[in-house]
Amino acid sequence: MRVGLLFGSFNPIHIGHLILANYMATNANVDTVWLVVSPQNPFKPSNSLLHEYDRLHMVRLAIADNPDLGETDIEFRMPKPSYTIDTLTYLQEQYPSYQFSLIMGEDNLATFHKWKNYEQILQYHEVLVYPRPGSAPVPEGLKNHPKIQVVSAPLLDISATFIRGLLKEEKSTRYLLPEPVAEYIQAKKLYL
Ligand SMILES: Nc1ncnc2c1ncn2[C@@H]1O[C@H](COP(=O)(O)OP(=O)(O)OP(=O)(O)O)[C@@H](O)[C@H]1O
Ligand SMILES: O=C(O)c1ccc[n+]([C@@H]2O[C@H](COP(=O)([O-])O)[C@@H](O)[C@H]2O)c1
Fold it and tell me: What is the pTM of this model?
């Protein structure tokens, strides 16, 4: 089984994540894509970060109708902040016969050389990258790397930051968030 792993804060999950995950699940060399909800990205401030169980719940609501996508809360039981190499190592121990690839947006590839043990990640895993507008330039050493593949797919100028801004101002997020996620946010009065 070939599993693509899309790690993220998903604060909240939006249609950019869903388009990206579905594109990889149906066009890249993987059988399924799992969304890995990270409690705490080592590079991001934790203010405005919703509780991890709310973010996981929204991910579940968003992908419930898509058999090509799954999710995992594996990082909830690991030390924080969440280092991807540690999670990959743990997952590989749990599922020794599976082949795990890493999926990320281009903005994350631009800083990938600063991640913990990134060379080790590249040694054992393929990295599938979705282009993202406004991303910083990719460092020379990562451009044309044999383990890194940047796919050609429609650019999506959507971010969770932008959507949190709309929610805070009580503006419409219609078509930017999956309906069940928008309903959950409204019912629980999140991001106000
Ligand atoms: N519009 C997008 N285009 C390409 N990749 C994206 C897009 N949105 C998110 N991603 C990728 O999905 C993964 C998880 O992203 P994350 O949950 O941080 O969303 P985000 O919209 O970047 O959030 P924030 O605005 O809070 O930083 C990352 O690898 C990120 O690069
Ligand atoms: O392992 C690292 O050093 C590392 C550094 C920065 C980000 N990450 C992971 O990359 C994922 C994307 O983060 P985010 O917040 O942009 O969705 C998330 O799972 C982070 O834990 C991992």
Answer: 0.97
